[in-house]
Amino acid sequence: MRKVSRWFQRNLIRIYAVVAFTYLLIPVAYTIAFSFNNGGKSNLIWKGFTLDNWMNPCGAPEVCTALGNSIKIGFLATLFSTILGTMIAFAIGRHKFRGRSTTNLLIFLPMATPEIVLGASLLSLFLTLKINPGFWPTVIAHVMFCISFVVVTVKARIASLDPRLEQAAMDLYANEVETFRRVTLPLVAPGIAGAALLAFSLSFDDFIITNFNSGTMTTFPKFVYVSAARGIPPQANVIGSSMFIIALVIVILGQVVGRKRAVK
Amino acid sequence: MLKQAWKSSQKRSSKTMSKSGISSPRTPYLLLLPGMGFLFTFFIWPIANLAQTSTQTPVAGGDTGSYEQTLRWKNYIDAFVENKEQFGRSFLYAALATIFALTIAYPLAYAIAFKAGKMKNVLLVLVVAPFFTSFLLRTIAWKQILGEQGFVVPFLRNLHIIAPSTTLTSSAFAVVAGMTYNFLPFMTLPLYASIDRIDPRTLEASGDLYANGFTTFRKVTLPLSMPGVVAGTLLTFIPAAGDYVNAAILGSPETKMIGNVIESRFFKIVDYPTAAALSFTLMATILILVTVYIRKAGTEELV
């Protein structure tokens, strides 16, 4: 009995971690399980196993249009926010200049502003300028809220670089451009890749800001939200599950590649 | 005159040559310009525009949705008085969700940082993994799991833990639980980052100086992980206070938050000034709370 309680004490935090992970992953498991449900359109009750939904992911009306929009917006937002954010990160991380603290504040503010305020304020600007909400306003909105996260992620990576590596390159007669291209950039690249992944997932999953600025265009989260009232078709679960699996594969591949590089 | 001009151009070119362009004093500004220009246009300007909208009044005899500037500051008072309940609820729910998330995430982050060994990276991926299934799908999954047709409610009823008439969804409990769940990764990651940085030898040293486990935690671990606690609570509290999705899916009319009000003012009632005044009040309140909190917690290096 004492042994048992001692084991329990020693492993308390591990047991806790297992419980916490179960809590985190239950809805994911539920979503994946119900992607195989033969439940028809509403997909509320388990009615039996089927692969039909996976064979026919565009089976529900609108779902693939919405997904396509989300992917397009995600790519554009990732591209622009990663470029703009990385430039800012290099300015802050590698240079001393006047107005640095103001810059930092301007980067921090969008993250400290609730999404609903960001979405509502952009929409009211678009309305004032007589710009109709839709595809491009949504892309602009996404770039805007992704930039700060890119800056923070890339900046952290730049800050963790050993400045002696760059000095060594200069000592070996590389000029600044070469040093940047062959030493600094490859070292910062994983940070930029991470930031891009983060930007894409933020953009892809965003609902509140998108809902304000997209007008009649649907995106995947909007599709889910709107169809929630009458029951979400299992195809939405198929797409959610696929995103989960794809992201997991990307992250694991990244880890493996990173480890191989480290071994080299 | 000509000579001077030639000399100065020589000087300039030699300067750019020696610095090879990349680190001239102008470089940081050139790097900042596009991004900052973007943020000024699509973040600062909209906020300023929102402030301007907030004091407008309807055009007499105009269409619905047409407003003119009359600098009616009373919009703020009206909007607040009319919705003070929803304001209070937003901050209460957000605070509760933040506390719950911190309670769940701290031991989890601690376990990943100190007890996971080789599993560390796998566990970190698992923390982020739910992110990739749309958060709306997950929130709706909770609704179905906790709903009448899910397995939790009948189970608890059979055990007489809850009364036959009690439901778990459409309640404040469900809204707070949903927010806690959705923002848990935002809490766990910064906590992990700062706990992982703690040198385990400092904990050993504390033990060598006869501190027990609890004292070590209170005097060593917790202070050293404070940056993570501050970042995590902010990343949870700020989006939670403005959230309306959890309240819309898991709540009832009695659990409406300020986000729900802003959303319906904007889209259903087309009352832009009130929506703007509410948004502005929400943002200002959050910024004040955040500033006070950062001062109190004593960490300046957030960004």
Can you walk me through this structure?
- The complex is a heterodimer of chains A (264) and B (303).
- Chain A is mainly α.
- Chain A folds into 2 domains: 2-52, no CATH class; 62-232, MetI-like fold (Orthogonal Bundle), CATH 1.10.3720.
- Chain A has helices at residues 2-10, 12-34, 52-55, 63-94, 100-112, 115-128, 135-159, 163-171, 176-205, 208-213, 220-227, 234-263.
- By secondary structure, chain B is mostly helical.
- Chain B has a domain at 90-297: MetI-like fold, CATH 1.10.3720.10.
- Chain B has helices at residues 2-19, 27-53, 74-82, 84-115, 120-128, 135-146, 152-158, 172-196, 200-208, 213-224, 226-242, 245-250, 258-267, 272-297; strands spanning 56-58, 67-69.
- Chain B has a two-stranded antiparallel ribbon.
- In chain B, β1 (56-58) and β2 form a beta hairpin.
- In chain B, α3 (74-82) packs across α14 (272-297).
- Classes of the chains: A mainly alpha (264), B mainly alpha (303).
- At the A-B interface, α2, α4, α5, α6 and α7 of A face α2, α4, α5, α6 and α8 of B.
Condensed summary:
The complex is a heterodimer of chains A (264) and B (303). By secondary structure, chain A is mainly alpha-helical. Chain A is built from twelve helices and no strands.
